Amino acid sequence: MKWLVRSVLTLIALIALAILVLLLVPTERVAQLAADRFAETTGRNLTFGGPVKATLWPRLGVRAEAVEVANAEWSNEGPMLTAETLEVGIALGSLFGGDVQIKSLTVDGAKLVLERLADGRANWEFAARTGVNRATGQPEPDTSRGVSIESAVLTGADITWIDHGAEARVRLRAVDLETALRDLDSPVRATGSALLEGQAISMEVSAEAARPLLDGALTPVAMTLRSGETALRLDGRVDLDPPSFEGRIEATSSDRFRIARLFDVEVPELPQGLGREIVALKSAITLAPGGTLHLRDMVVELDRNRMTGALDIDPTVERPRIVGTLAAETLELDGLSRREQGGETVLVSETGWGRETIDVSGLFAADGELTFSSGPIIMGDVTLDELRARITVDRGRMVATLQPLLAYGGTVTGDIILNGRGGLSSRVDLQLSGLQMQPFLTAFADFDRIVGQADMAINVLGVGETMQALVESLDGTASFRLGRGEMLGLDIGGMVRTLDLGYRGEGQKTIFDGVSGSFEIEEGIARGEDLSLTAEYLTVRGAGRVSLGAQTIRYRLLPTLRRGEDGSGITVPILIEGPWADPRIRPDLEYIARQRAEAEREELEARARAEAEEARDRAEAAARQKLAEELDVEAETLDSRGAVEDAIKERVEEELLDLLLGR
After folding, report:
1. Pairing state between β 397-407 and 386-394
2. Among 156, 183, 210, which residue terminates a domain?
3. Is the CB of residue 639 less than 8 Å from the CB of residue 617?
4. How sure is the predictor about 644, in pLDDT bands with cuts at 50, 70 and 90?
5. For the ranges 54-58, 155-159, 461-465, which has the lowest average pLDDT?
6. SS3 of 267-328
7. What is the DSSP string of 526-577?
């Protein structure tokens, strides 16, 4: 029992002695020695503007105020680090030799400036100073004591990041950070939070060890970042010089990556089905030393849609450049169309074409080339069976080349161009082959009167900030050709035979063998003069115009009901007029009256011309007979102007001879 009492008394004596030594240590002198050692090691000045005191409670250690670390010589941003207070708590055993065991390291009210020049130099890169034995010229052995930190806490800090090469400046306020470092070869973990432009962010980082990270070796690291409704996790190997990473990334956001706006990255408004509610990404990721980013085995979830693919991103150029492939088994894009609304889409409103300004700012966010493929695409009432396309974007101009699009029993190939430079313009140059017209026109134009398979060609250019303005400005051409089919709601043959309006409406139809036509489009008005429809005992010609902006039609059909093989028959014009979703169809009796009046007028004019010609012929015959009698020739010989001139000449010559010869 005595040995235990003696042991306790000895320990108490040693602790008392350590405390006495700590109280008697000249802390100002120790601080100066620490500052000198720091300057010798890093090449930067360390100063203490306030008192440096030894502490007994709550930790045995040292407290310093107004701490300042000088910045790099080339910086104009002031000190690299300032702190209101610096407290170091050490383990009691550290006073008696061995490794330095720091129980706590607390920095309060710090202001830290991290700065990188365009040439790559950074202010956190300190000059390495190696001790050298002056006598031998050889490096002195490292006799420094090992250091472990049980807890390091940064509270209320202000951190500014400046990248002169990227012309970026980011400031974090209210930064709280906590970490621990047993030694440089042990795992390290850090957690923290901050405010970025008033938005709260939190972070967790863990590394396998600090030493390989500081030595520039690839080191296993995991990081989680959260801000608002956005979360990002990286798990892989990282190198700090130059910054590089390989591993995996997981990211989710239900606030459209709101944090990206703080870095002047505008995320455009996304429609339903393309990320309006949630965006999620899982992928293998590589950040190359040159700054390029590479995603492989990528899975992207946009609302309820899922896509796979790979991307290569180069953010080091004027605008980020993206090259890659994306594929989807199916896509639901109801945000681009409304169900049970007769084909209405975001481009078509209830009263016509959409009048909201079309946002094309996303075309300027990045350049690149994307190959896209998908199975069925559902957009409300519109369904596309399969899509393969190549999309390129260059300085705000997008070209989508369909390779091809399969829909409604046919194929669509060609280019769709959106150009946001200097205002929005768009060109559509498409070839449509084998389309089933009734479901196609119902989905896109709310028009279900045509049944048949068609080939079409469209080449139009429009300019405007809204869909209405684009359509009203369209210039170009369009043509179509249908095989055998039906025109619903109108029996042209019956209407021609009876002049009865009852041959239109539900249950009526015209069966045709073929229909073709073409249009010249100018300022949103499509004019056609060559519509042709052929059917048994019926031929139809047509001409008129379609106002694309107002969605109205005025078209006149001239059907001829043939009576026999010679093609003769009766023709009764039919006028199609009104909104194209519900046009009025009727015999054009006014046109018939005008045609009859025109025919009568032409008949009267022809009769008058005939009578005038007959009178002229009689007058000419009388004049010829009289002239023949005077010239003493037969009237029949004066059948031309030349004959008359020759007869007069001969008569004059004979009279001159008679006069000269005295006959």
Report:
1. antiparallel
2. 183
3. no
4. low
5. 54-58
6. CCCCCCCCCCCCEEEEEEEEECCCCCEEEEEEEEEECCEEEEEEEEEECCCCCCEEEEEEEE
7. EEEEEEEEEETTEEEEEEEEEETTTTEEEEEEEEEEE-STT--EEE--EEEE
423 plus 391 within the same structural domain: yes
How many angstroms separate the CA atoms of 324 and 329, rounded? 17
Residue 133 lies in a domain: no
Q: Domain boundary at 433, 453, 473, which? A: 473
Helix 641-661 with 589-631: angle, nearest 10 deg:
20
The pLDDT value recorded for residue 427 is 95
Higher-pLDDT residue of 258, 652: 258
Question: Whole-angstrom Cα distance, residue 347 to residue 444?
Answer: 11
Element (H, E) at 493: helix 492-498
Instruction: Assess whether 240 and 371 both reside in one domain.
Output: no
Residue 481: which residues within 8 A CB-CB, separation 6 or more?
Answer: 454, 455, 456, 514, 515, 516
Beta strands in 144-218 (DSSP E): 147-163, 168-181, 188-196, 199-207
Query: Which residue type does 572 have?
Result: V
Assess whether 112 and 160 both reside in one domain: yes
Residues 153 and 27 in one domain: yes
Domain that holds residue 389: 329-473
DSSP-based three-state secondary structure for 502: helix
